[in-house]
Every structure is written in structure tokens, then in C-alpha cells.
Amino acid sequence: MLGLMQPHALMISSLLTHAARHHAAGEIVSRTHENTTHRYSWADAERRARRLVRVLQGLGVGEGDRVGTLAWNGYRHLEVYYAAPGMQAICHTINPRLHPDDIAYIITHAGDRVLFVDVSFAPLICAIAPKIRDTVQAVVMMCDAATMPEMTLAPGMALHSYDTLIDAAADDYAWPTFDERTASALCYTSGTTGRPKGVLYSHRSTTLHAYAIAMPDVLCLRATTRVLPVVPMFHVNAWGIPYAAALSGAGLVLPGRHLDGASMAKLLNDERVTFTCGVPTVWFGLLQHLRMSGERLHSVQRIMTGGSAAPPLLIEAFRDEYNVAVEHGWGMTELSPVGTYNAPKPAQAGLSPAEAVRHMLKQGRILPGLDMKIVDGAGRELPWDGVAFGDLKVRGPWVTCAYYGDEPGSALDAEGWFATGDVATIDPDGFMEITDRSKDVIKSGGEWISSITLENIAVSHPDVAEAAVIAVRHPKWDERPLLLVVPRPGHTVDPESVLRIYDGKVAKWWLPDLVLVVADLPHTATGKLLKTALRSHYGDIYANRTT
Ligand code: ADP
Fold first, then answer.
1. How would you class 68 by CB atoms within 10 Å of its CB: exposed for 0-12, middle for 13-18, buried for 19 or more?
2. Domain locations in the chain?
3. Using CB atoms within 10 A of its CB, is residue 210 exposed (0-12), middle (13-18) or buried (19+)?
4. Residue range 383-417, pLDDT digits in tens
5. Do the two domains 259-439 and 442-538 of this chain adopt the same fold?
6. Residue range 259-439, CATH number
């Protein structure tokens, strides 16, 4: 027997129409590329998104077509986020920090018909225009007519100014309802190995993810929250915040391209931001600026860090020096992206300040709606004892089942689980902790050594700014750890003193065989350590060892 409840489909447009109707005055603030501040409301955003649908239709975009964006966080980008899926097209966000060849590959692979481009990426788009001319028919620069840059595209590609098109468009569009499984957005993983792969979200997955991340034990978004996603809208939908903010009626502050410590501190204070989300690198920049300038944060209560492991120093410094809580979450492009969040249970109530920091290093509990497990090399489920570590698998309605262009289900195992590529422990309270990427774990003499654990200990050394531990081939042990450290500015690092801080913290056989001091470490376009490059450079350094 079917239930007798209204069969409304979960539509992304309904998040926006909710915000426009019930939080009409809720503010969206954008720092523009001219470094001015643009303000409008959720009601304005909804009206402009409807006009943008008319623009898209005028450009020949129809159902299922891909609409690419190469843009920072700003109100025009937000409008594309809602207009494209609202008309059953697909918003394809492209990471401009990738190599131009990868960008051209992604645009061609996705078959983007129209591109929306920030002015700062004009040279980039002109450079790759000849490579994408077969798919891209029009480029819309996200500016007014007066600020249109001088550009030459490939023959046959039309060039427009966003504001000119919007100003001429009618606002008579009415958001349609259709199958909630319809594709809504496309995002390519940054591809630390191999070619980038596309993850294709749906209206259903996006809406459910928005509901889940807004909850109190996750991002805790409310109508009184003013949230600033530093995480770019070109990187996994800015972690879903543009959708979840509309759902909650939260104020949204979009920082544009200037993400350095000084610009961040000013924007956070000027716009009375209460909550902000981004990767650790950004928070280190902010911390450094605050310490040097003596500035304080006047409104920020919580900072969420994710994308890579939360450094203990960050958690301590913001808590102890600025009275700001650092929260820790984990996710990936394939999970829309949020999978776990570290919010306390009653058992965490009595933790000492030091224990609380240690606990916050865990990536957290699975979001309701998803499930997770850890398995050993033979696929057997491992216990939740906080010690055993194995491959982390997840499943649920906002987890991908196949990459763009592949057969549905092809990214899953026989029981429908998705292998995250991360290696983790789960403690008896259900808090997951990443110990490695599957491809980065060091397999020494048949046992596994966690590179992340070794890196976290290395960065607790007072002279070390950044550390990377990689697996290096070893004639006797198969693989052994190599530690690379970058000194803090103005400091020198004594490798012996780095090895000494491991005393009592890890088993003797976990100790890196060698510590190399280097000037810097390579990173991916999303700021993660590029261990593939390190492995190919240092892969044979233990080749002649016998012990
Ligand atoms: P890519 O996999 O292409 O680098 P993603 O942004 O999808 O891009 O990265 C997801 C990966 O980032 C996760 O599988 C995990 O390895 C890492 N990651 C994300 N959040 C955290 C975190 N809080 N702690 C440790 N690693 C994290």
C-alpha cells in the first residue's frame, strides 16, 4: 500500500523559491573582481535566476545540456547554480586552477555548450578556445558591458556580457517540476592520478545533501547564520553551502578571488560572518595574518575545516587565542561532498582541552542517510575499535554510483558500496578517522603504516611548517616511509630532532628511515600534497638498502 502523502519531487529550484518567499530579505553579499561589494537578497537572486533561464534558452541551451562555469564565488555564479538545473540543464563547475590542457579536456569531455567565465579567466579561455570550439558555442563573461575585457575567441564562438543579457531578459519563467533523479550538476574530481572523472549530481541527491548538511550536528545553518564559503564554488559545489544556505535562509557571503589572510579577516569582520568553511591552507593564512597584525575576529564563532586532515595547531590556536571553534568534516567529490562531521556525543563532554583537540582530529560521524564500513584487503569488515584500519566504503543517496559517461553502478561493489580510496579507523562511538589514502599507505613487511599519522607528528615539531611522508620501494621491506619536511620561515630543521619527537608515539618500525629537509612540497590544484610527484622523484632512494 502506498502512503497518502503529496508526491512533490525534490527540486533544487524549490530551495531557492523557499528562500525567496520565506527569507526574502536574507542577504547575499559578494566581493566582486573590482573589489567592490555587491549586495542583494534571496528574492533578488531568485528573480535573476529566472531571467537567466530565459538567457540560457536564448543561447540555445535545452534539457540535459551542460553549462560550464569558470568562476570564483559570487552572485552571478550563484545564479547559474540555480538557473541551469532549474530548467533541466546541468551546471558544470570547472576548476580554473587545473592545467589548461586538463581544463580543455574536461570541457570537451563534458560537452559544455555554453561557458560562464569570470573576467579574471579571460586570458585562460582565449588560450584554450581553439581546443574547445567544437563543443562550446558561446562564452558569457560574468561582468557588465563596460568591464568586458578585450578578447579573441575561436571562429564561430559567440562572446557576450552577462549583465547585458540579463538586463534584456524577461522574468516570466515559472520553475517546472520534473523527475527528481534528473541530472543537475557535474563536477570533475581533481585527478591526483589519471584523467579527471566527472561526478553527475541529481536534484534528489543535492536536495537531500542540503538537508543533511544544514543539521545542527553538521554545519548547523540557521536563518541567523551568516556563512562564508571560502571553499570555491568550482570545487564540489562549495561543499553544498549555496544550496543549504537557501534551505535555511542563512545569509551568504561570497568572497570572490582574494582569499589571503588580510582580505579574509576584513571580509569576515565587515560582513559579520558567524561561520566559515574552507581548507586548512586558508586558515593558516588567516591565522598568520591575525597574529602579525594583532587584528581580532569580531563575529566568527566557528570555522569548519575539511578537504585534508585538520592540523592540531590550527584547532588549538583558534580556540585558545581567538575563542573560535574549529570543526572538522570529511568528504569527497563523489559524496556531494560531505560524508562525516565531527560533532560531539555526550561521551565527549568531559574531555580535557588537550583530549578535545585529539578528538577533533577525527573526521567524525557519518551523516544520517549514509552508511560506512571499513574492510581489510580481502573485503572482510573490520571492528569499530579505533585501532583496526582498512579501506573505507560508503553508500547512500548522495554517493555516486558511476562516473560521467560510465554505466550506472560501475563505481560500486556487488553490495552497492563505494570504495572511497581512503583508509580509516572507526571508534566504538562511530567516529571515523582517516589514516591514509589507499594509494599513500606504506606497506612495510606486510603491515600498514599510516603516512598521515607520521605527518601529523612531524608538524608538531616547532621548526616544521609542512611535512609529507611517502612510501618508497625497499629491497627488504617492500616499502618504507620517507619523511620530507619544509622548515618554518626563518628556521632550520635538524632531522635527528624530528625523529626524536616520534619517541613513544608510534611503534619503532613506523619510524621514517630518512628525513629530508626541502624548500617546498608540490600540491594539487585543490591544495593537497601531490604525492605521486614525490614518489616518482624519490622512489628509488632506498634501492641499495639492506636493512
Ligand atoms: P580529489 O580526490 O580529486 O583530491 P576531493 O576533493 O574529492 O578531490 O578529495 C577527497 C579526498 O580528500 C578524500 O577522499 C580524502 O582523502 C581527502 N579528505 C577530504 N577531507 C579530509 C579530511 N577532513 N581529512 C583527511 N582527508 C580528507
1. buried
2. 1-200, 259-439, 442-538
3. buried
4. 999 999 999 999 999 999 999 999 999 999 999 99
5. no
6. 3.40.50.12780
C-alpha 271/C-alpha 432 separation (Å) is: 34
If you measure from the C-alpha of residue 474 to the centroid of ligand 1, how many angstroms do you get, rounded to a whole number?
28
Domain 1-200 in CATH 3.40.50.300: no
pLDDT at position 191, please? 54
Ranges 337-341, 359-363, 524-528: which has the least confidence:
524-528
The catalytic residue positions are 189, 334, 443, 448
Q: Please state the rounded mean pLDDT for residues 541-545.
A: 88
Pocket residue to mutate for ligand 1, from 102, 283, 332, most atoms within 8 A of Cβ: 332
Distance 337 CA to ligand 1 centre (A): 9
Q: What is the per-residue DSSP string for 227-264? A: EEE-S-TTSGGGGGHHHHHHHHT-EEEE-BT--SHHHH
- pTM score of the predicted model: 0.90
Superfamily of domain 442-538, CATH level 4: ANL, C-terminal domain (3.30.300.30)
335: helix, strand or coil: helix
Neighbours of 144 (CB within 10 A): 13
Q: What's the 115 CA to ligand 1 centre distance in angstroms?
A: 27
pLDDT digits (tens, 9 = 90+) for 187-196: 998 654 567 8
Assigned C-alpha cell, 108: 570537451
Residues, the chain, total?
547
